[in-house]
Amino acid sequence: MSVQTASRPRSAGTGTSSPTRLRTTRLRSPRTARRSRRSVALTLLMGLVLLYSLAPLFWLLVNATKTQDGLLNSFGLWFGGDFALWDNIARTATYDGGIFLRWFANTVLYVVLGAGGATFLAVLGGYALAKFDFPGRKAVFAVVIGAVAIPGTALAVPTFLMFSQMGLTNTPWAVIIPSLISPFGLYLMWTFASEAIPTEIMESARIDGASEARTFFQVCLPLLTPGIVTVLLFTMVATWNNYFLPLIMLKNPDWYPLTLGLNAWNAQAATAGGEAIFNLVITGSLLTILPLIAAFLLLQSYWQSGLSAGSVKE
Amino acid sequence: MTSPQVTVPAGAAAPAGRTSRRASRRSWAGWLFIGPFMAVFALVFLAPIAYSIYLSVFRNQLIGGTAFVGLDNYARALGDAQFWSALGRVSLFLAVQVPVMLFIALVVALALDSGRLYGRSFFRISIFLPYAVPAVVATLMWGFMYGTRFGLVGNINQAFGLNLPSPLSSELVLASIGNIVTWEFIGYNMLIFYSALTVIPKSLYEASEIDGAGQLRVITAIKLPAIRGAIVVASIFSVIGSFQLFNEPSILKSLSPNTISTYFTPNLYAFSLSFSGQQYNYSATVAIIMGLITMAIAYAVQVRGMRKER
Asked: Which of A74, B117, B259, B265 is surrounded by the most beta carbons within 10 Å?
């Protein structure tokens, strides 16, 4: 056993451009599979983790089919009583004047503008960090990476006070503007762009007389697609699942996103005279997670390749 | 507050060095692209940090309005039993939950990468899925399951005539929160480790095969050292996450108001100080102290992780 081979592969894949490396990654799996036989014991062991990950989601699915009475009177991990899924969905959508649909629309608005904007800024910034040597580049890097360590919630109070002086609290902007910055997205895009875009392509575009904007949009942007999809999915999750920021910024339930709305419904049972609507909380929760799960499943091949090319890889 | 070395991810130095060699010429053109990011960044990160520091050296008094008090707020926090109790709680949480979560994630990632698993991509995507579930939904879901009324614990007690303690009791509630957080982030960390594993050059495996190394030896001598950077980054993210603990306890509070205090975690404490107590200045101080502690520990994790490597 040579210790030399065990030393860290500092240049793991860094010399090659991303498409080449992705191909070699795919080629490796059949090879490893041939070398080592599949293991039933290992599969069963991992099955435990799988069970742990999926059982709560199964619980959610099963219990979204139950009435409020059924929830109290049947076993949690299996269907029981009347099958009330469709009725629950209808009641979730119409309860309290259809406020759930309003929350859904708000969430979509926050995601489109917040996550969309965050991805756009991260792509532009990551591209700049990867492909340009500009004055202040090192400072930008230090400030942004340092900022990741600052607890987001530590910024909440001063941001709230600032926004309240600017008259932005209790408006959608208070949720959208802070969502526009994703340091993780910037980092992901930066490492991805430095691998996916050969500098020679940019130089030949410039020699052909293309402007910087044109070089970016027509030559480089297509090469960045898997990275962009990855960043978009992760900023989407961050915005769709955001709870703390809207909690402090919004008072008016008409502007709530789904997360805040669901929590309000749940808390309603604890207030004096409030109606317990746990079946609607559960059905609403199911409806809240479906779009993201669908997005992850549908775009699997894109974001997984984008992540392994652009993510921490040493 | 933004010490440059704090969380420089292991991978970051590599692209930086490489691109600066390759980038064509030094010009301001890059600012066309990074400018918009930095403008918004200044508004939502730098300005609030500056404002927070400003707030922390003032005090709003009933008589006389706002007065400059220097470091008084900091002194108050150091003697504040509630703050220490919150800090102790998240430290305990960090010490137990993070190692458990990262260990499981690492084992899963190694199993996926070993090629010895049936249905690998099914495992990978399924174990990742909880990450897509909002903390609010995850907490409500687990909160219901924890319930002794119509939750699973209640069901089990009823079915088997047992008397399992409530996961929401004051002794168990921190562990129950740890379980929720673990459930949410195993898949995310697994993915970080797995992505790092997939880019290990296969020549290393071939060399080890020639040397006759077994599976375990390959893991300890090649795979773990190769993904040390990813492990350090995942640990740093987890440290930051633990110290920021807010969503899960704050939502569980409505299911179990008596076991979760307003100062259960430092963030919950800072939140209650400003939004129930109107003590904005003191709240900003608590937030700054937590920011500093977080950065110090993240930095320590990084230094330790990198030193071991050599």
From this structure: B265
**% of residues, chain A, pLDDT over 70:** 82
- pLDDT at residue number A153: 64
- Summarised one tens digit per residue, pLDDT across range B192-245 is 899 888 888 888 888 888 888 888 888 888 899 888 888 988 898 898 889 889
How far, in Å, CA of B105 to CA of A154, rounded?
28
- In order of A189, A230, A233, A294, B116, the CA distances from A307 in angstroms are 10, 6, 11, 18, 23
Residues sharing a CB contact under 8 Å with residue A171, sequence separation 6 or more, in sequence order: A255
CA distance B171 to chain A (A): 22
- Its pTM stands at 0.84
Residue in B with minimal Cα distance to A133: B26
Positions of E strands within A187-314: none
The average pLDDT across B268-275 equals 88
- For residues A307 and B191, is the Cβ–Cβ distance under 8 A? yes
Using the Cβ of B226 and the Cβ atoms of chain A, whether some distance falls under 8 Å is answered with: yes
Residues of B in contact with A282 (CB under 8 A): 140-141, 144
Beta strands in chain A (DSSP E): none
Per-residue b or e along A259-284, where b marks 16 or more CB atoms closer than 10 Å to that residue's CB: bbbbbebbebeeeeeeeebbbbbbbb
